[in-house]
Amino acid sequence: MSTPKRRRFESDDDLAPMSAFSLRRQLLAAKGTVTTAVPSEPSSSASSPAPKSPISASAALPAGRRSARKQASLNAPSPQPSLSPGGREATVIAQESPAKKPVSGASLTTSDNGLPLAPVQQFSTFRPNKQNARKLAGGVLQLRLSTSERFLVLGSFGIRVVSGEVTIAGATLNKTDNIIWAHAAHCHAIPVLRCSEDTKIELHPHPRAIELRRLERLSPMFRSLWNEPSKPGTGAKNELASTFQIIGTAADAPKKAVIQDLVSHPAWNKKLAELVARGGSKAPVVFLCGPKSSGKSTFGRILANRLLTSPSQRAKRPAVAILDLDPGQPEFSPAGTMSLVHVKTPNLGPSFTHAVPETTDASVIRCHATASISPAADPEHYVECAQDLFHHYQQSALRNRPLIINTPGWILGTGLDLLTELISKLAPTDVIYMSEDGPTESVDALRSATRTNFTTLPSQQTEFTSRTAAHLRSMQTMSYFHSIRASTGQVIWDPAPLTSVPPLQVQYAGDISGFLAILSYEFQPPANLLAEAINGSVLALVEIEDGKALRFLPEVDFKAFGDVSVDPETSMDVDDKPAATATGPRVSRSPEGIPFISNPTSQTLDPRYSQTLGLVLLRGIDVAKKSLQLLTPISVHAIEESRKAGRQLVLVHGRFDTPGWAYTEDSYSRTYSETAVDERETEITEEDTDNDDSEAEPEDLGMAGDVAETPWVEVLRGNEKRPVGSRVWRVRRDLGKGGPGGD
User: What spans are recorded as compositionally biased (Acidic residues) (predicted)?
Assistant: First the structure.
């Protein structure tokens, strides 16, 4: 631990007084010689008082002024000076250190003043030149790779293999006319492209990169993620041509960016090879569990990519099923949901780049909303949702394809009980625990619950990250609501603020109604506070497939409801059926007329008879017109199909993250400037910072300009702070924790 106290170094009393600046001059003068005489200090400096003990140059610099690079350069190998006693003249003898081998993957560089700098980390063995790299029309870069060469690409790009074979993030790509698209942001580890033989590939600029990067105008969370941006005014053509950048060394990275390459541990590779090569008629069901940030999602992504592209699997298993049971960090759906996903192509991007996956890449077969980022809110409902999703996997065409199950990083107490219960009920063929450091009680319990193969693998935690788990959840939710799915199945991002997007007008009262009611999980707000509780929040749009879904509400008569017709321009309405004749005694109304299902015992919908179509953002409540203004990427066609089948819709209110990013988009958009972005320093934090209950603000509102008139935004001036008790109050359950206050 650092201390403000100054330490005294013992030395001979007859040593000449010397300042740090004088010592530095001696070191520079001694460069390249064995013995060098240093001129004496001027009389003015010699006569000035100074401490008698000489101090090193590194100690002379204030710790607060030393940057990371300067500190590393001071720690680099350098001649050690020896000061001889005497009068005003001192002799510096440069001691020759034994020759050392260069550090693997790093090289030493020298600054302008001759002092060695920190080792430069090497990421690539491939160096583009006129012989192995050629630019084609449209910004396409053609590369010729030699055997065993590797390199990193930062940004958004497409890969087409002309000849040979390359691997990236576990996927093996062979000669094809298809382009495999990838997004590599430095807030995650960047996948490495490798070749095992002479290979020719093409790197294509990503056609969707511009829209994705323009989200930075709406939130600083999306800034400083990619390769260096184009200068203002260069136009869309140049923006498209610069959607990616080859990273040879750390010096090639954008300023203030920390680059980490995606590395697969040798123990991982051994287990991956075993799972891919395994034969038999039964498809593998791999259950991934372990602590937070241990590499569960990374291992699952690499495994899925290898299964999709392995030569032995392409013919009989052209696709992979993903059962995502982590509502806090899902891969193909927004936070607060669990899903069964049919993956068709390699996954080469962060989760926020496919919050709404393209139909050619992946499709969500079935989804359930926990309405919370943690299974602690309702463990029983969590297990029920997991069982229903697994049941649909067994009953669907996916049953003969590999299934990868990803779970939350909750491995103690009730979290451990949930994992053992899931293993017992889902009966996976392989259980992989992503840590070799225990805890012992968790490993023993999981091993005992496993009937087949149980494996422990070393975890791989990233040392630094520029985005916390709360940031990544907000980015994924923001990306979700800015996604637009075209009729062709392609997904694009709309970089306009949500305030400029026309909402769906959904009638909730009168002669017509667009949904059954509002249902609150875990907490039932009073009727007079319902409108304030749900306004500006994220809700789940749940389709009721059977009346049994409302197991706690037998009074609702679903036959009394008519079909629904949706106007794509303005509204989604129910046919002219009086709502009063369709509601039972348990469906009540708020003073504004909003229908809600009284739920004082915190019951949930039965997942066997319901599914989540997606999330909606309640932008506002028009009391005069008795309508809700909803923003959602759910297509009107999907809602129409549900209503034509005679099914009802329920809006579920729970503990989704507050969409603070949506409240400030318009202000950030108005104050956005390229200069501010370039001068903005990216925050680097230590991993693991993914505390799901963290209340830290995911955005810096100081960059949002004037937000005084923005709803749900509190403006703090100067040194103002929120008063005690102003944060969201949560019920402490102490689930699975011992000691005082525990069970």
Answer: 684-700
pTM (two decimals): 0.77
Tell me 17's DSSP state.
P
How high does pLDDT run on average in the chain?
77
* 529, burial (CB in 10 Å: exposed 0-12, middle 13-18, buried 19+): exposed
Beta strands in 656-731 (DSSP E): 685-686
Distance, CA of 492 to CA of 469 (rounded, Å):
24
In the chain, the largest separation of any two C-alpha atoms, in whole Å, equals: 106
Which residue would you say has higher pLDDT here, 282 or 686? 282
Q: Nearest to residue 406, comparing CAs of 391, 426, 381?
A: 426
Which fold is adopted by the domain 271-461?
A: Rossmann fold (3.40.50)
**CA separation (Å) from 202 to 141, 205, 248, 335?**
6, 10, 18, 35
In this predicted structure, what is the pLDDT of residue 720? 74
- Bridge partners for 653 per DSSP: 520
Mark 182-215 as b/e (b = at least 16 C-beta within 10 Å): bbbbbbbbbbbbbbeeebbbbbbbbebbbbbbbb
Tens of pLDDT, residue by residue over 299-350, are 999 999 999 998 766 666 568 999 999 999 999 999 999 999 999 999 999 9
Kindly state the average pLDDT of the residues 565-589: 45
In 296-451, which ranges are continuous DSSP H helix?
296-309, 379-395, 414-426, 440-449
Q: Tokens 């915190």 belong to which residue?
A: 602
Fold designation for 133-206+243-252: Jelly Rolls (2.60.120)
pLDDT value of position 256: 79
Q: Where are the domains of the chain?
A: 20-96+114-119, 133-206+243-252, 271-461, 498-658
